[in-house]
Amino acid sequence: MATGRPHAAQPSAPWRTTRVNPLVTVAVKCSRHLRDVVAVRRFERQRTTGGDSVRAGDVVARQHIVAHMSETVIVVGTFEVDPERRDAFLESRVAGMNLARGEPGCTTYVLSADPIEPNLVHLLERWESKAYLDDHLERLRRNPPATAVTAPRTELTVYETSGEAPLIL
Predict the structure, then answer these.
(1) What is the pLDDT of residue 37?
(2) According to CATH, what is the number of the domain 72-160?
(3) N or C, which end of the chain has less CB nearby within 10 Å?
(4) CA 121: distance to chain centroid?
(5) Residue 76 gets which letter from DSSP?
């Protein structure tokens, strides 16, 4: 990515970049979003300069990308389990993880063992919108997972994001 800093790392696939101006480069995940960013730039430029040649698709694209950026929901959780039962706890959740990953709007669903604390399991979920997460939670309420290994202490937090970009170190 040409940011003016030669040490900047390239975003990993499927990120694509487009230069907004000499100082800003936007990274997007797919060609649809790259096309939308270009349309939003054209829309904003024409809107601010008083141009009347804004395409109908530009307005739709602007609405799409703004809505997409503002809806991502992340769930972060920690399960405290008996260290001797942690592997069994994780194994008992594999079917549920696979089911969740197949649900509409789920882009990430991972349970993983903490490499330092033997009694902790971490959860990371990423959903395209709160509505998709709500549908997932409703499914879980209707059909709770049957498991013999439980976590006596669970902490879950939902984060609603306003946008995203790759972290460049």
Answers:
(1) 52
(2) 3.30.70.100
(3) C
(4) 20
(5) E
